[in-house]
Backbone:
C-alpha cells in the first residue's frame, strides 16, 4: 500500500499480458486505487474485456492489442496510452508463457529461440525500451515478472524458460542501475506456482502441476492478486529505496 492516500489517483500504469492471470488482477488492483490502466495483450479481445470491466465500474482504462515481441506494437501502444491519459508512471511487464515443457535434451533450437529471444528476454527488452525514454522527464517504476525458476533452474521440464527468466532478472538489474539517478526504479518479481491459465497454456501435465503444489511448503498455489498487491507496493511511495532486485513470492519455496 502507498504511504500517501490516493497516491495512485491521476497516475497511469501500462500492463502487458493484462488479458489474463497476474496481469489482469494487477489491472483490477491499480484501478481500485484510482490509477488509469492501459490493459495490453496479444489477445486484443481479452485486453478490451478487462478494460471494459474497469470502465463499467467507473475507472479509467484502455484495452489495446500489443504483441510484446514486436517493438512497433509496443511503441504504438505506449503512444496510445500517452494520448489517452497524458502520462505513463508505471509499467508492469507480465506477458509471457512457458511455451512447452520438456527435459533438457529435448529442447530444440526452435523452442530455445522462441522462449529466449521471442517470449521472455526480448519482450521485456521491447517493453522496457519503449517506456524508458519517458524516464529522464518523469519519475517512474518498471516491474518485470521473472520466476522462482531463476533460482532453481527448471530441472526436468523448463531449463529454457528458467534461463530466459534469468535474463529478465539480469536485465532488470542493469536497467535499474542505469536509471537509478534519473528517478526510474526497475524491479522484478519471481513467483512460485500461481493459479492462472499459465500451466494449461504450456500443456503442463497434471502430475507435474500436482508435483509443483506438493513441493510448496504452504501446500497451495499462489493467487494472482498476491502478486498484484506486491506490484502496487513496489510502485508506491512506500518503496522508494528498492530497485534492481527480484522478490520471491512462493509460499516458502519449492520445485526442488
Ligand atoms: N502462473 C505461474 O505459475 C507463474 C509462475 C512464475 C512466473 N509466471 C510468469 O507470470 C507472467 C504472467 O503469467 P500468468 O500466470 O498470468 O499467465 P496467463 O497465461 O494467465 O497470462 C499471460 C498473458 O500473457 C499474454 N501473452 C503471452 N504472450 C504474449 C505476447 N507475445 N505479447 C503480449 N501478451 C502475451 C497471454 O495472452 C496472457 O493473457 C508470465 O511472464 C509468466 O512467465 C507465472
Residues:
Amino acid at each position: 500500500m502507498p504511504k500517501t492516500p490516493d497516491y495512485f489517483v491521476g497516475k497511469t500504469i501500462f500492463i502487458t499480458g493484462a488479458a489474463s492471470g497476474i496481469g489482469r488482477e494487477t489491472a483490477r488492483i491499480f484501478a481500485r486505487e484510482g490509477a488509469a490502466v492501459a490493459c495490453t495483450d496479444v489477445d486484443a479481445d481479452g485486453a478490451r474485456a478487462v478494460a471494459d470491466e474497469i470502465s463499467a465500474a467507473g475507472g479509467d482504462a484502455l484495452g489495446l492489442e500489443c504483441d510484446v515481441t514486436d517493438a512497433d506494437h509496443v511503441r504504438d501502444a505506449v503512444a496510445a496510452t500517452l494520448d489517452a491519459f497524458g502520462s505513463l508512471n508505471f509499467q508492469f511487464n507480465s506477458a509471457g508463457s512457458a511455451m512447452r515443457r520438456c527435459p533438457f535434451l529435448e529442447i530444440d533450437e526452435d523452442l530455445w529461440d522462441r522462449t529466449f529471444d521471442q517470449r521472455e528476454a526480448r519482450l521485456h527488452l521491447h517493453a522496457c525500451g519503449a517506456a524508458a525514454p519517458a524516464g529522464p522527464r518523469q519519475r517512474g517504476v518498471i516491474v518485470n515478472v521473472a520466476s522462482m525458476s531463476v533460482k532453481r533452474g527448471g530441472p526436468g521440464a523448463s531449463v529454457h524458460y528458467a534461463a530466459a527468466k534469468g535474463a529478465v532478472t539480469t536485465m532488470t538489474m542493469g536497467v535499474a542501475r542505469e536509471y537509478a539517478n534519473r528517478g526510474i526504479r526497475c524491479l522484478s518479481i519471481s513467483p512460485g506456482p500461481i493459479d492462472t491459465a499459465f500451466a494449461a497454456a504450456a500443456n503442463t501435465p497434471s502430475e507435474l502441476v500436482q508435483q509443483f503444489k506438493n513441493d510448496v511448503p504452504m501446500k497451495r498455489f499462489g493467487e494472482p492478486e498476491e502478486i498484484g498487491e506486491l506490484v502496487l507496493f513496489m510502485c508506491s511511495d512506500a518503496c522508494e529505496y528498492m530497485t534492481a532486485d527480484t522478490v520471491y513470492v512462493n509460499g516458502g519455496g519449492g520445485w526442488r
In short: The first strand starts at residue 12 and ends at 16. The two ends are 32 Å apart (CA to CA).
